[in-house]
Amino acid sequence: MALVLWMWTTTSQLSAVLDLSGRPIDLFDQGRGQVTVLIFIRSDCPISNRYAPEVQRVADRFATQGVRFWLVYVDPDENPQAVERHLAEYGYSLPAARDTEHQLVALTGARVTPEAAVYNSVGSMVYCGRIDNRYEGFNRRRSAPTKRDLE
User: Fold this and answer.
1) How far apart are CA 40 and CA 48, in angstroms?
2) Residues whose CB falls within 8 Å of the CB of residue 26, separated by 6 or more in sequence, listed in order
3) Which among 131, 143, 151 is positioned nearest to 52, based on CA atoms?
4) Across the chain, which distance is largest between two alpha carbons, in Å?
């Protein structure tokens, strides 16, 4: 139980995680008791952008089960208007946050974009890694994934 309380306390103190209005936001606050998925992306990352339809598909699939998805923009220089344009351009209907000081990046250990971190209903991280195995390495892409790690 102490571990769970530590998790919630830590995430509520992430003052540099901002909504698109520039206000601090706790991505886990309203989702206590639900699974929360963070998708770390950059609007200028071609791989992140290629994954937009897949991320939206997975989010839509699991929304009926009460899973909450957040897009987490990690570029500290990206302004909210650029994020809003990116959301519209790539057809996202997911809520977005800006991790301006990489507090969520540090908390999860995320290293690349796109990358997913999954928290269970009691606030423990249960997965951090790739969405699928479409990319075998730098500039080495399969025509279709054979493993869907996030799902």
Assistant:
1) 9
2) 11, 12, 14, 17
3) 131
4) 45
Rounded Cα distance, 114 and 117, in Å: 10
Residue 4, pLDDT score? 40
Report pLDDT for 30.
63
pLDDT by residue (tens digit) across 82-99? Answer: 999 999 999 999 999 999
Rounded to 5 degrees, what angle do the CA atoms 44, 48, 49 make? 70
Which DSSP string do the residues of 97-147 spell out, in sequence order? EEETT-HHHHHHT--SSSEEEEE-TTS-EEEEE-S-SSEEETTEE-SS-S-
- Single-letter amino acid code for the residue at 17: V
Burial class (CB in 10 A: 0-12, 13-18, 19+), 126: exposed
- Mean pLDDT over 38-45 rounds to 96
Q: Which residues contact 85 (CB under 8 A, 6 or more apart)?
A: 43
Please give the helix or strand (H or E) that residue 53 lies within, else none: helix 52-63
Are 91 and 59 within 8 A, CB to CB? Answer: no
Q: What is the pLDDT of residue 3?
A: 38
Report the predicted TM-score, pTM, of the whole model to 2 decimal places. Answer: 0.87
* Residue 147 scores a pLDDT above 80: yes
